Amino acid sequence: MKFAHLADCHIGSWRDPKLRDTSTLAFSKAVDKCIKEEVDFILIAGDLFNTSFPRLDNLKAVVMKFKQLKDLSIPVYIVPGSHDYSPSGKTILDVLEEAGLFVNVFKGTVENGKLKLNFTTDKKTGAKITGILGKRGALEKAYYEKLIIDNLEKEDGYKIFLFHSGIDELKPKEMENIISQPLSLLPKGFDYYAGGHVHIVDDKQIEGYGRIAYPGPLFPNSFAELEKLERGGFYIVENENVRWEPIQIYNIAKLDVKCDHMTPDEIKNDILTHFKNKELNNTVVLIRLHGILESGKPSDIDFREIFNFLYDKSAYFVMKSSHAVTSKDFEEIKTDAGNVEDIESFLIKEHLGQIKLENLTLEKEEELIKSLMKTLSAEKQEGETVPDFDRRVREEVGRILEMEL
Amino acid sequence: MDIVGEYMLKGQIISGEFGRIIARQKSGQSIEIGELLIADSSDGKILMQVYDLIYGSQISQQNLEMISGMKLEENTEFELFDANLRSYMLAMMKSLVTIKDKNAFVSKALPSVFSEVKEINENDLSFLTKPRNPLFVGNLRSGSKVLDVPIYLDGEKVFSHHILIAGTTGRGKSVLVSNLLWNAIGRNYGILVLDPHDEYYGRNKIGLKDHPNKENIVYYTSRNAPIGTNTLRINLDIIKPFHFEGVIDFSDAQRQCLNIYHKEFGDKWIEAVILEKDLGIGKVFKDDTMAVVKRRLLYLLDLEFSNSQLFCNGVFQLNSGFATISDICKHLEEGRIAVIDTSNFSGAVELLIGSLIANEVFNRYKFYKMNGNLNDKPVVSIVLEEAPRVLGKEVLEAGPNIFLTIAREGRKFKVGLTAITQLPSLIPREILANMNTKIILGIEMKPERQAIIESASQDLSDDDRTIASLDIGEALITSNFAKFVTPISIPYFEDAVKKTLKGKGEIAMEFSELG
Q: Which of residues 279-338 of B touch A (CB under 8 A)?
């Protein structure tokens, strides 16, 4: 018996146009690899799509790959995940299942208020597969608590349990804040527990349970995941052997910049120097900055020049994380003001004098800031078109700044 | 039967002094040690408690002996005076509070001589109001009679200011703790229970798991975790040298060895010690020191070293349990009760686990106080069975530990201890005095009663006999947050459970996403 275990494909997760199709591409590559490896069947442990109703172009590409698998008689067994399930039970997954492209194995009956799961048997191998979907906020825990386990544990044969939940005892330290559930909620005695939801690559043999495996996402889903995992992948399970197959879409180049005691210019130069002799073809560049600047503000770091430089060197995509950079000029201020207006007024007063302009007294500066804030927080009026609204705000701001915009 | 108004007449005050009021018992009535009685005074009603009983008679001792001899030896009935006037009981009482207009305050006057002493009426106790954060501890008891007056303490205050539960084995400590925990569920108290007898969760009997708000209970066990509960696994990376303080008595050299390895290898220091990895500063410890540290760690943490590889056989693991301690702390911060089954461990392992969690909770709460977020957090209490194991004089002489720190400073950070013991005299007086609520069950041994009496929040100097005579399920509460030393009766746990569960059914669930 040989099967593939995928999870957290999150098709459609990246919004940036350059990365929008990456998850679809990763899925396509994974399916190609499964076909090449001649697996008997494929498991997808939740979050195939990033939403319950994905975009049509992504959907089309995915359906094509499922069709290819169907034509080759490679069945796919899935459970919905916390991103692509729907409380009503009606999602695009139902449509695809109806079309015979895969089987949702979260099937069963309700007996005296308890959940009795049925097994789906893979015709070719005889493997018996069942599982429980994932829900937002780990609400699926209530299903496990109501699960009848006798029939599951007593069933003979090679058994696989698909789930989309974090496990308290197994989650890594950096994921301590995700909601998870105890290991004891999983029914015992399965040969393979195909997990999803937690974006880690990990497989463990657990006494009384069997092998519990998380293949991680097919492609990392965030800056932090790209930084940590660099690439996605899935498991190929053949008899007792489990092998992680990486899916390499782009190269990753990472830089961690400690900004303490540095000026914005020094930081820019450091970054440029670091990448000067690096090959960045087909590479996603990740720049993380943290620390307290010696002078200036985080916005003084010339990211436009940095990005242009990196794109000129053929980087495929450049991302930065600079929220952990702070400025000495703008330090944390504590106030006991009671409402938003008071807090705003307090903050404005605390920072007055930092804009160096001729003839701009503190009083004028305060008035200018308040007028700009008021104008820029204006909302589009009923019946007003977007261009009209845009024009009105521009004119008003121009009047305050005494300039033509 | 003499009834005065709505009251049962029990006797009359005849003499005494402040703190020792003597009343003659009315014939046909019985007065018990610990009984609550009422007498009127110009300030209001005075609530008194009987702490001793003696015989009184109008006949001299010599004549009493003679009358007895006549009966015993001659079988002759011989009577002097009317029987009801002749011999009687004298009750020694102390005043607890003066009650006026549903308020109670410390008594500063004596009731008049010949004031009538009456049985307490539940209406007199209307000053016993429900506090803001009510924690039910039991029903008020007058002698052996249980009154229909529930006694509540302010949970937030008593938990943060430490509770001592003292009593001889078999007097009801476990039932009391079970009741306290049961009543605390779902009331936003974070309670960590280190349970060396695995008796509170109720794995195979009625227990906390049966509570209707069971989502507020988490249970960690190393043995065959029941469905929905957690397998206790703790990653070795989480353990730091200071967690062993008060748990294992390492020598100075051994402690230095732990610290240097931790400094050099960080989270992986235990593996480094076991594998005897080289230190950057060269070899600074004797082979013997290294060997002893390694052996003790292997034994304590249930590790095995073979073929140059480290294997974990017990609760401490290399590849799992990374988030266990922080998960437990998170549960406590969310006002849940975390029961840790430590019945499978040696005392040292139990205390090491306690030390790991207690350190983390205490540090988090210190941080919250610094950030001004402490008010948003529930009070946390750590239930310690056989408390002298970590708070005993001998243990503390070897060095401080986290439990001592919490006993001394915890209340400032909303972290308290609920210390259970049958030997309070082993705990230093300074610590005992810091435990501002004491729930005292029957104690036969005089030195143990003395330790409690000397450190109580209220004057218990006359209660030695009362404490000695407490029956199973009877207790006295002395607390900074109680108006007087309150005698209570602890309900049977099963009864409390049945009362809570009466009429509560399971909520039906829909499985709408079922394929």
A: 319-324, 326-327, 330
